[in-house]
Amino acid sequence: MPTPELAVIGGGQLARMMQQSAIGLGIRVRLLAEGPDVSAAQVVPDHVVGDYTDLDTLRSVVADAPVVTFDHEHVPPEHLRALEAEGHACRPGPHALLFAQDKGAMRERLTAMGVPCPRHRMIETSADLEEFGYPAVVKTTRGGYDGKGVWVARSAAEADEAFASGRALLAEELVDFRRELSALVARSPSGEVRSYPVVESRQADGVCAEVVAPAPDLDPALADRARELGERIATELDVTGILAVELFETTDGRLLVNELAMRPHNTGHWSIDGAVTSQFENHLRGVLDLPLGSTDARAPWTVMVNVLGGAVEDLEAQRAVVLAAEPDVKVHLYGKPVKAGRKVGHVTAYGPDLDDVLARARRAAALFTVGAPHD
Ligand code: ADP
């Protein structure tokens, strides 16, 4: 195998889609995969199968790679500091990643920066929660994803499960929001920053269901503020690669930050087909300190709909059905076994008419999930 330029830790669909961009740019990637058949291990020939919580495994993967990046935010920070001390550039670095790993640290830091966040406090007991007031959103500070580790509590009893988790907990006001937005930013170590158009993300059962780019009817002043927030957070926290800032647009027209992700993000998948430079390409350019590419949209509207595991068991067999029904919708399958509710792919449509674009993307996704077109 040729010497790698970049080590990627974690073999999920984000690493798989990074590889798609790495191929075009000729970037030599080595991957640490959780198993021999995981999504990215299928497409990165230079991969090691092992445990990302084991420092020696990480050392063997990054051995001759000058730069390390991530498919997820779960690598222990002390391991990243060890790799940095041994001369590898971790991008993003552990000092930045902390704020994507720990929602308590993130709230504290953003509040200190004057970034608007929901009212919040760390809680240890139900008396603390009582004092904070109901309704509250109780979250584990670490390890949550897709709404796991998030409880809406209108009484002490509704927080039982949260307290039983034994994890550090954060209480937040239940934000009355009109919708959720996402501001995606690419940043390189030399300080170049580029923002994508602000998008709307729609969730179902705590999981991102679809993303519309740009967010329809967004007040241009609010869009500018969202982009500014994203760029400021990326710069002040020294994020490299992609930063996703998940935002609430409140019913009274304010923006509040929900959370941060420091890697390509589900709300940026639309950019593969819908932007001049995809978030995966700009993530690679960012972490390797190459010039960033244009984040402009290619079409007036782009819609991404996630394919969640459903009634269709054989996605590859269903592919022909989808392509026959929607030949212009772009299909992305992740090579993952179908399990109910699991993200196993996404589809993207773009064009001049939002209703048409939305309908085509939803129809294609429905053919992959329930097997029949969506109304
Ligand atoms: P995860 O890390 O699992 O994505 P989030 O903190 O993003 O967790 O919360 C998941 C979802 O729960 C959000 O997308 C949003 O719909 C809802 N949510 C989270 N925090 C609040 C809040 N303070 N007020 C209202 N809804 C919230």
Structural account:
By secondary structure, the chain is α+β, with helices and mostly antiparallel strands. It folds into 3 domains: 6-90, Rossmann fold (3-Layer(aba) Sandwich); 119-173, ATP-grasp fold, A domain (Dna Ligase, domain 1); 177-369, ATP-grasp fold, B domain (D-amino Acid Aminotransferase, Chain A, domain 1), CATH 3.30.470. Helix content is 31%, strand content 27%. The chain is built from 12 helices and 18 strands. The strands form 3 sheets. Strands 10, 11, 12, 13, 14, 15, 16, 17 and 18 form a 9-stranded antiparallel sheet that branches. The chain has a 5-stranded parallel sheet with strand order 3-2-1-4-5, with helices on both faces. The chain is globular, with a radius of gyration of 20 Å. The termini are far apart. The model has no long low-confidence stretch (mean pLDDT 96). The structure holds adenosine-5'-diphosphate. Adenosine-5'-diphosphate is lined by residues 118, 137, 139, 144-150, 172-175, 180, 203, 206, 246, 258-259.
Structure in a nutshell:
This protein is of the alpha+beta class and 375 residues long. It has twelve helices and 18 strands.
- What overall form do the CA principal axes indicate? globular
**What is the CATH class designation of the largest domain?**
Alpha Beta
CATH architecture of the largest domain: 2-Layer Sandwich
What ligands can be seen in this structure?
adenosine-5'-diphosphate
Query: What count of structural domains?
Result: 3
Give the helix/strand class: alpha+beta
Instruction: Please tell me the overall pLDDT.
Output: 96
Share of residues in strands: 25-35%
